[in-house]
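If your schedule permits, I should be very grateful for your opinion on a structural question. Kindly check, if you would, that the fold set down in the C-alpha cells agrees with what the sequence suggests. Thank you for your consideration; the sequence and its C-alpha cells are set out here:
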Amino acid sequence: MAGNTFRTAPEPGGNDVQRSGTVAWSDADSVLSVYFHVDRPADLHLQIKAAVRNGRSTILARVGQDEFKVVVKEAEPTAHDIGNVKVTAAGYVRVDFKGVERTGDVFAEISELLISSDTDSLKVDFVRNNKGGMFYWGRRGPSVHLSYQVPKDRNLRYSYSEVTVPEGQDPIGTFYMANGFGQGYFGMQVNGPKERRVLFSVWSPFKTDNPRDIPKEQRIVALARGQDVHIGEFGNEGSGGQSYLVYPWKAGNTYRFLTKVEPVGKGNTVYTSWFGDKAANEWRLIASFRRPKTDTHLKGHHSFLESFSPTHGFIGRRAFYGNVWVCDVDGQWHECTKARFSVDATGGGRHRLDFTGGSDGKRFFLRNCGFFNETGRPGETFTREVTGSSGPDIDLDALPMQ
C-alpha cells in the first residue's frame, strides 16, 4: 500500500500513509485511492490485509461502479475479501477506500491490497518495495525529459525555449524545467496554492548533498541578481547555488527562457538566465553565477517535467516546449527541431507507467502522473516543424543585468 496509495479526497495531503508501510485513517471524509496497472482485460479477486487495534470498523471499497463493504475487527493483520471485479481493458485500476463507521481510533490499518486472477499471463505493475526509497519516488511519479539535438561542430553560448502549461495542468509540486544544461537547470514551479516560482540553479563542481561541505574555492558565486530574486544554496541532489523569483505565472500563457553559458578564463564559467512573459515582450534577469573549475560552452541542452510532491503524484500534469533554439559564439541561431525522449528510474523500472512525450507539430510536449493509460517509449526521437524564422527576436545587448 505504501508506495501506491494517495488521499484523493477531500483534497491531497495528510499523513495517512505511515512510515511503517501501512495506510491508516480516521477522517470519514477521506478517500484513499490505490493504483495498479494490468496489461490486459482480466477478472480480478481483491482482498486487503487489514487490522484495527481496538473496536470494529466498516469500510467501503469502490472499483469503478462496483462497491463492496468490508468489516474489520481483528487486532492483527488479517486477509479480508473485497470481491470480484472485471477489468475490461489494459491500463490502471483504481481502488478507493472510505470509512463508513468505526468504534476504535481508526477505520483500519491496511498493509496490503491482494490481487489474484485466473487470467492467463496477466502482468501487474506497481511500486513493489521500498528499495532505493521507491515508496517516496513512486508516489512522486516519473520524471520525463527531452534532450535536444544541437550542432556538434559549434561552440554554443545561448539556449532559448518557450513553455506553455495548459490550463488545469498545473498541480502543486510541479517543476517545468525549460533550459537544462550540463551544470544546472532553469524553469518554473508550482510551490503551493498561493506561490509560484521561477528557479535557476547551478551545481558546484564539488560532489556533495550538503552545501556546507563545499570548499570555499569550489562554491558557486552570485555575480548579479534580478529585482526581488532570492539567492541561496541547495542540497540533497548535489549542491550549489540557487536563485528564485516568486512570480505569479499563469497556466495558458507562454513564457520564454534564455540562458547564457560563457567561459571567462582561469577555469571559470559564468551562467546567466533571463525570463519573461512572451505576450508582454519582457525580459527579467534572474541571476548570474560563476562556477569555478569549469571551462565550457553550453552543452547538454534539455528540458524536463517533474513532480516533486508525493501527495500530489496522482494528479496529471503536462507542458508544451516550443520554439527551442541555441545560439553559437558567432551569433548564429540554430533551431532545435529534434528531441530524444527519456524517463527516470521510476518509469524505467516500471514502478509507474503514466508517462509520455511527443510533438503536436509546432511544439514538443511532456506528460506525466495522473495514472493515464499511455506509456511513452524511452529513446524515441520526436520532430517538430521548422518555424522558418532565423531565430528568436532578442536584442542580446539590451538584456537587463539587474
Remarks:
- Residues 139-398 form one domain.
- Residues 246 and 343 are 28 Å apart (CA to CA).
- The chain has a mean pLDDT of 96.
